[in-house]
Amino acid sequence: AQSVTQLDSHVSVSEGTPVLLRCNYSSSYSPSLFWYVQHPNKGLQLLLKYTSAATLVKGINGFEAEFKKSETSFHLTKPSAHMSDAAEYFCVVKKDGGFKTIFGAGTRLFVKA
Amino acid sequence: NAGVTQTPKFQVLKTGQSMTLQCAQDMNHNSMYWYRQDPGMGLRLIYYSASEGTTDKGEVPNGYNVSRLNKREFSLRLESAAPSQTSVYFCASSSSDSGANVLTFGAGSRLTVL
Predict the structure, then answer these.
(1) Are the C-beta atoms of residues B114 and B106 closer than 8 Å to each other?
(2) Is B83 left (phi over 0), alpha (psi -120 to 50) or beta?
(3) How many CA atoms lie within 13 A of B13 on its CB side?
(4) Cα of B60 to nearest chain A Cα, Å
């Protein structure tokens, strides 16, 4: 069975400091993994995806994530936070074929000036 | 290029009333989805349609029905609304249901059931 755990419900950083949003997954096969971002009162937008190619995935707006099979993790990072990064972030695992998409509970990122 | 369009954006219902949420996409996607978002629970799949003419239940289908009217449109109906259905509803589409395909989301519909 698949599952996704986002280890922090809230993360607060200062502008210009690094961002780390943690995600662990459970899957009995090689999944596809995604990070989506949701700004207030908006729909979700894809940040990046992993589909068994390079383990370090680069996304939009300077975000990247590293797939670590041994740790079953897919943490999202950014070297320097910007005020516009304040949003909710969702880690997602999907099995190839079918509708089985599992969303994490979300991590709300706060960025302080 | 509108992407995924949902209507209405906001709706307030009384318990027992019915309503339909409309969704249309202009990206020629085969697969369409309805999710609900509740605080602390991420998004949960209500129904999905892999292609025109097919629909399948997701994680939380009870109290809902769907219609894939054509390739562009996928509606979600609440026949007898309950307070537990107060939520934000998102429609999404993808080119297919394969694992690598990205979901494109609408802006959401906020439903309150009194």
Answers:
(1) no
(2) alpha
(3) 25
(4) 13
Q: How many CB atoms lie within 10 A of CB A89?
A: 24
Say yes or no to pLDDT of B100 above 80: no
* DSSP-derived 3-state class of residue B107: coil
**Do the chains contact at B100 and A105, CB–CB below 8 Å?**
no
Average pLDDT, chain A: 90
Q: Is A44 on the interface with B (CB under 8 A)?
A: yes
Surface-to-core class of residue A97, CB atoms within 10 Å of its CB (0-12 exposed, 13-18 middle, 19+ buried):
exposed
CA dihedral (B103, B107, B108, B109) positive or negative: negative
pLDDT at residue number B33 = 94
- Would you place residue A22 in the very low, low, confident or very high pLDDT band (cuts 50, 70, 90)? very high
| Closest residue, chain B, to A53 (C-alpha) | B100
Tell me, what amino acid is at B39?
A: P
DSSP tag of B62: T
B chain contacts of residue A97, beta-carbon cutoff 8 Å: 97-99
Interface contact B107-A9, CB threshold 8 A: no
